[in-house]
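[agent] plan:
  1. take the single chain provided in the ticket
  2. run structure prediction with default settings
  3. attach structure tokens to the ticket
  4. add a short note for the reviewer (M.T.)
[agent] executing step 1
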Amino acid sequence: MKLFWAALSCIFCTGHISFAEPRLTYNSYGMPGLVDMPSAQSAPDAELSFSISQAGKSLRNTLMFQISPRLTGAFRYSSIERPGSTLYDRSFDLRYRLLDETDRRPAIAVGLQDFIGTGVYSGEYIAASKKLGPVVATAGIGWGRLASHNSFDNPLGLISSQFDSRSTGFTGTGGRIEAARWFRGPAAIFAGVAWPITDRVTLKAEYSADAYTQEVSDGHFVYRSPVNLALDYQIKPTIQLTAYAQHGDEIGILASLTSNPKHSPNGATRDPAPMPVLPRAKALVVPAGWSKIPSLRSALITALTPALHQDGIQLIGLSLTDTVAIATVENHRYQSQPQAIGHVARLLSNVLPASVDTIAVVPMVRGIAGSQVILPRDALEAHETTATGAADMRAATIVTDAAATDHRAAATDGVYPQFSWSFGPDASASLFDPDNPVALSLGAKLAAEWVPARGIYVTGTVRQNIVDNYKSTPRYSDSIITHVRSDSTFYERANGPVLQDLTANYRFRPGTDLYGQFSVGYLERMYGGLSAEVLWKPVNSKFGLGFEVSAVRQRSFDGLGFAPLTVTTAGLGAPRSYDTITGHFSGYYAFDNGLHAQVDLGRYLAKDWGMSLHLNREFLNGWKVGAYATLTDISFDDFGEGSFDKGIFMEIPTSWSIGRPSRVKRSIVIQPLLRDGGAKLNLADRLYDLVRDTHEPQLDAQWGRFWR
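[agent] step 2 finished; step 3 output follows
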């Protein structure tokens, strides 16, 4: 406490305080707020924040995402020391801003804290925040944990007596949505101010409604006062450091790192300058039937292939008539398919004879042709340099299904077979194991791919672990249902080079609006077998339907076969082999605001039946942030800790961080608990994700990059 007051005194004694504009700050829970208490403020749309706060014997790690301009979500992983043990707690928060601030009215938000978890931090609140000159003042009413100091009868009891009492304890093994407790029981008032005393330093003071009853009982500190103080220092626009004093007896520290998928740290990608459109010389006489001359077609392919390759685009096929040219290409560089299509169209305009008045581009993704983008050549020549060129070009463009395009007849020589490989460092992490909450592994990965013909892909990955902080003896799962995922730690700790996957895939078009895929081999690290998938997805629709079925068998821990698995932990191991048939019907929908939804219905790896809901927000630069939840016929009690499968996932495009165009993405999945209920196969390259960015809704969303 003395250090905190000394730092505060130094700031005021300088005599050079210049009040600044109010700035958003984070509280000790990693949410926009004061010291402990929440506010009604929201982070900028799409902001991601990772924060770590330490006070005494409690450590909180929070990942926050501004899901929409009004909706804020967070996942928190906390370490709380208890007498004789340590509690590792997982919790989720949601906050919705009901009203925006105006000159006369404060912003008002309602929030749920720890609404899915064991309830350690469980509470609800309604908060109001208002700018008063340079100061942001907040006042609110809280329930649950946020009503443990100086509480009073619940005012909502005037609506119904059911709001008067709040049941104690939490059912089962946690992880359930305890809606019957929300806004129930005694309530309490909290309030505070945030005062930016310089352009980097903000002083915060609050009257807290949280008495930290359990922490005081466990001997973390002595509760002396409901007043909390904090000094927030903005090191950089993306880095915040906060020191705070709680309840007159405890000092804490908070560090927050923020980023926004909308804004690259390197600014806009530095794309190579595209070749300009070459207007046709109308007077040039081209002989009728020129497209039937083999030498001329070969000359066009010879000119196009290296030019496209330099642009990161591969020419798969070229079909010609005297008036129409159809180029089938695969884009290996640009996140935006319209940008790649624009590059192809301009290159074609430079080499095609003047009689060609229609240019069609068929973007192919890993052997699948999703659409045919038909571009009038006159429109290309007219709209390249106009102020509304992208919109005018889109109005003149027609997008159709590519199933009827004769790709075999149009295939260019020398495209197949293809072989590629990569080798480099690799990092992996295993999170939330109570014995080792953050397990890291550094190694090397060799990946190879052979494409003998169009639509046939043979891929494989070998990984060698080099260094890690794994425990010598991993914890054996206590799951009472079949161990389809919960033994993953034994796979992660395998010695020697590990064959992670080895798969042969065949992708094809059964008909208009239809896509198909067969896969065989080691489909993922834990399972191998056969898989088939079919997708119905009209090229101009936001809606799609899919069906997937797989016959799989569990792989050995060392990755070298399907031998019966033996767990070597004394007294727990027994030879076993497991196989199953799993499959799902899936529905997909793309909303206008970048929100995508997926619903799966079917049979999971543990032979349980149920439903999964996936929601994600995707940005035009390729960033994706989302969450999923799965409920099956396995009861909450049989599922075990966490009650049901749920998680958070992100896809981060490499181009966003390096400032150069690239289609490479890094996927991150955060699962609070890896249990056996609701488990799905981790298959790569499912059809919907392959084809949708070549379809009209996604092309429209990204069409602004056509002339880039």
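[agent] step 4 note for reviewer: Residues 290-410 form a domain with the GMP Synthetase; Chain A, domain 3 fold (CATH 3.30.300).
[agent] ticket updated
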